[in-house]
Amino acid sequence: MSAVAAAEATWTTRHFLDVDQLSRSQLEATLNHAAELRERRSAGDLGESTSRLVGHTIGLAFYEPSTRTRVSFELAARELGATVVDLSVAGSSVAKGESLVDTMLTIERTGVQTVVLRHSAAGAPYLVARSTGLRVLNAGDGPHAHPTQALLDALTLRDALGGMLDGRSIAIVGDVAHSRVARSDLHALTRLGAQVILGGPPAWVAGFQHWPGVRVAASLRAALRDADAVMTLRVQLERAAGGGTGSLREYTRSWGLDDEGMSWARPGAPLLHPGPTNEGIELTAELAASERSLIGRQVTNGVAVRMAVLLLLAG
Ligand code: CP
């Protein structure tokens, strides 16, 4: 059975709201599917997949800024033959005060079948899934979840670490408390057998020591010791998580990643970052551009992962 057929056989869900709705075998099948699509796309041979979503209308509703997620969902949907409607909030009646649910019901009535939703409120995609007939894909809801980012992170890590994550130590450093990426990554990586070591100022990692498969480290050196891979998170300046300039400087001194910090991880351990990066705050520009950085690879994998998810939901 092809990776595509195997993945389709495992997906019965109508919405994709977070990775915690997927079992380990569903996660693995989805990553295999995405890897196959990535190879076929890079060879210019998507074959019959280019028409799989013909007749399907997908709305992109981004209530928060995005580059990677929005562009990769749009490319993925178009390359699979879907009609794509950009529901830019600034140009819609949302700017006149229309509620989220009313806006979603309106676009459903125009013929949109699937909505890719990014929203600043945790739970917004769940509300739309309950209140409308749309299929809902969560493209990031407040600090809660970012499931397709978790899939592309897992795919990137799997490739870099030889195919499986069982027994691997993945360090995630930074503003975990405000990070939807970290929360979804924790679900995906631990379900795939990895141990996750979290590092960051106490307020940013508080409570996570209770997650199965997760350990909280008290210093950057302790977080990176024996790490097979390192992910640093964006300090979310727009959510006021960074505090004043003084505390940002303190953060960089204690938790910012540079070449010396990376030397505490296992030799050759790759570096990931979901983007966009604050160079000079959570990592140096040199490290972001270094050979061990997989930041560009994560972005490229995002298109294949979103293709896989769109096909699985439509299938
Ligand atoms: N990683 C991520 O979600 O990036 P964007 O905000 O650019 O989509």
Mind explaining what this structure looks like?
By secondary structure, the chain is α/β, with parallel strands linked by helices. It contains 13 helices and 9 strands. Helix 1 packs antiparallel against helix 2 (24-42), helix 2 packs across helix 6 (147-160) and helix 6 packs across helix 7 (180-191). It is globular, with a radius of gyration of 19 Å. It starts with a helix and ends with a helix. The model is unreliable at 241-245 (pLDDT under 50). The structure holds phosphoric acid mono(formamide)ester (CP). Phosphoric acid mono(formamide)ester is lined by residues 66-69, 140, 146, 149, 274-276.
The average pLDDT value, as a whole number, equals 93
Judging from the principal axes of the Cα atoms, what is the shape?
A: globular
Unreliable stretches (pLDDT < 50, length at least 5) are 241-245
Rg, rounded, reads 19 Å
The arrangement of helices and strands along the chain is HHEHEHEHEHEHEHEHEHHEHH
How far from one another are the termini? 16 Å
Number of helices: 13
Biggest sheet, open or closed, and with what strands and sense?
5 strands, parallel
- Secondary structure: helix percent: 40-55%
Side by side, the strands of the main sheet go: 7-6-5-8-9
Bound molecules: phosphoric acid mono(formamide)ester
Kindly state the number of beta strands: 9
Going by helix content, strand content and strand pairing, the class is alpha/beta
Strand content: 5-15%
